[in-house]
Structures are given as structure tokens and as C-alpha cells.
Design a protein that fits this description.
11 helices, alpha/beta, globular, TIM Barrel
Length: about 325
């Protein structure tokens, strides 16, 4: 990349002449930075604030209940409770457990069912990439009324790797009105680092799109599984550099040699990650995802095996957090 590199001390980042980090410059800064000066603890919204300060919440991404098991809302609540979770992270997107066009009817119904079961709904996963996304404002206003304080943004494709700076500038601009609405509603939009061909796979590019906004309005859903898949041991330095904009943590495990998702503890995710989070002061939402295959044909056998897998991974996560 033939650009003039300049130091951005406030963000702990190396930027090109457009104000966007080059990949080479960013990673060089990561390697040298350690804990970047002036970066505070992760910014959390109100759903996880308790009388003694922040509290830890473990939720399950209920895509597994909807896609793999075809469960209704009550069955989802029962399954999450029986697996030991505090609540769910619900997909509110086309084809999701709640359809965006039905959010006014169905999201309050789901929230009420979860409450009956003693569960919370602190976060949803959406298709929203800007305020022009279908039903975007309606989804966010309904969520905010229900006390939901976090939502994951949709994905952003990257058709041409040579066009990264222009693509990041475009995404930043699209976020402007969205960040303003988030601030008005008291809800936090989250950009997930997701491996694959989309923007955000290497974490630095996701960070570049949100770091110009207040972290209470736009932040990262830091996915340690995807970070491990893409960066290996490099997750640690990147985590330190983007720590000012960590809103929620996603948990799943990845085996790099086989390139497969596996049960928590069977892959390459480093459990020391949770000790680092503790040192950083993070005590917010952990959204646990289930992407790996379990034995059993569709039906009762698969449901039973998935339920056991969810409980096992949830118990592993709680043990790692307790030992951190």
C-alpha cells in the first residue's frame, strides 16, 4: 500500500493519509503497543449494570434453537434455562427467530416468555448495516423499549481487497446516522470480527469503522473464536489495542489445523483470554455460539445431544471465567 503513514496517538493506531489504518501499519503498531496508553476499560451499556457495578451475563445465541432444532419461543427459553444460561442472544433478521417485519409483535412476546423463565434478553443479532436497512429504525426502537442495550450489525462484503481503504470510509460514513440514533435510544451497535471474505475478519478493519464514534454508540463484538482462526496467538496484541471499543464478547472454539469449529476446550482458543479480559475490567455479556456438528439425526436425538453440548460448553466457560 503506497500511502504516507502518520501516527494516531489518541487511538493507538497507525493511519494512512486518509485517516484509515493500513493493515501493515496497524499490525506493526499492534506488535509494539502492548497495552496502549490512554485506552480505558471496555464500554458497556446499562443491561449489565448491577448494584455493585458490572455483572457477568452468559447468553446463548439462539440461532441453534431456531435453525437446527426448529424450536418455538417457549421451547427456546426452556432449553436455555436447562443448559444453565442467563438468557439468549436472539437473531432478529431475515430468516431469524424474530422477523424484522414482525418485531413489534414478536420481540415483546419472546421477551415476556424469557422473563417468565427467569431469563434475560440483553442483546439481539440483526441485519442492520445503516438506517436504510429494511425495518432498521423499527427494530432498534422496539429493542430499546424492551431494555435491550446491544445489537450486532449485519455483515459487510469486501469485493476487492485492493479497495479496503475506500470500503472502510464508506462504512464509516454509513454509520454516522446510525450512531446518532443509537445515542438517542441508549443502545450499542456491535461490529463482529468474522473470519471469511467480509470486512472485519482481521479485527483491525472492524475497529477502524467504529473507533471514530463513541464506544457507547458503536463498538466491537470481539469473537475470540474467529480471532483465533485468523490471527492465531495474535489475538492478544489486537485485543489490547482495540480494548476501548469492546462491547460484547463472543465465545466459540476453533481448531486451526482442521479448520473446524469444535467444543469449547477442544480447539486452539487460549483460555488465558479470559484472564486478560478480567485484567481489563470486562464483566459484561458473553454470547456463546454453537457452530460445530454434534451426532444425531434431526429429531429427539439431535435435540438431546445439542442440549448436552450447550450445557457442557456453558459449564466449561463458567469454569474458565471462575479460574481467570
Amino acid at each position: 500500500m503506497n500511502t504516507t503513514i502518520a501516527s494516531d496517538r489518541a487511538a493507538g493506531c497507525v493511519c494512512d493519509s486518509t485517516g484509515l489504518a493500513s493493515r501493515r501499519g496497524f499490525l506493526r503498531a499492534v506488535a509494539a503497543a502492548g497495552v496502549a496508553a490512554g485506552l480505558g476499560a471496555p464500554v458497556l451499556r446499562g443491561a449489565e449494570a448491577g448494584p455493585g457495578g458490572r455483572r457477568r451475563i452468559l447468553v446463548v445465541f439462539s440461532k441453534v434453537h431456531h435453525n437446527e432444532l426448529g424450536m418455538d419461543y417457549r421451547q427456546t427459553a426452556d432449553s436455555a434455562a436447562e443448559a444453565g444460561f442467563d438468557g439468549i442472544d436472539c437473531p432478529v433478521r431475515p430468516g431469524g427467530q424474530v422477523l424484522p417485519e414482525r418485531v413489534e409483535e414478536d420481540l415483546p412476546r419472546l421477551a415476556a416468555i424469557l422473563k417468565e423463565r427467569g431469563l434475560c434478553l440483553p442483546k439481539i443479532t440483526t441485519h442492520i448495516t445503516d438506517l436504510e436497512s429494511a425495518h432498521a429504525e423499527k427494530v432498534l426502537r422496539v429493542a430499546a423499549r424492551l431494555g435491550i442495550r446491544h445489537y450486532r450489525l449485519g455483515t459487510f462484503t469486501l469485493p476487492d481487497r485492493r479497495a479496503v481503504p475506500a470500503r472502510l470510509r464508506e462504512i464509516q460514513a454509513r454509520f454516522r446516522d446510525l450512531a446518532a440514533l443509537n445515542r438517542e435510544l441508549g443502545i450499542q451497535g456491535l461490529f463482529q470480527n468474522h473470519s471469511g471474505g467480509n470486512v472485519g475478519a482481521e479485527v483491525w478493519d472492524a475497529f477502524e469503522t467504529v473507533r471514530g464514534y463513541g464506544a457507547s454508540d458503536l463498538a466491537l463484538a470481539f469473537d475470540i473464536g474467529h480471532a483465533t482462526a485468523v490471527l492465531g496467538d495474535g489475538w492478544h496484541a489486537v485485543l489490547q489495542l482495540v480494548r476501548s471499543h469492546i462491547g460484547v464478547v463472543y465465545v466459540k472454539d476453533h481448531h486451526r489445523a482442521s479448520r473446524k469449529w469444535v467444543a469449547l476446550g477442544e480447539g486452539d482458543v487460549d483460555r488465558r483470554f479470559f484472564a486478560v479480559l478480567k485484567q481489563m475490567g470486562y464483566e459484561g455479556i458473553f454470547s456463546q455460539h454453537f457452530e460445530y456438528a454434534v451426532p444425531g439425526a434431526k429429531g429427539p436425538e439431535l435435540a438431546r445431544n445439542l442440549q448436552q453440548a450447550m450445557r457442557r460448553d456453558q459449564e466449561t466457560l463458567r469454569r474458565w471465567l471462575a479460574e481467570a
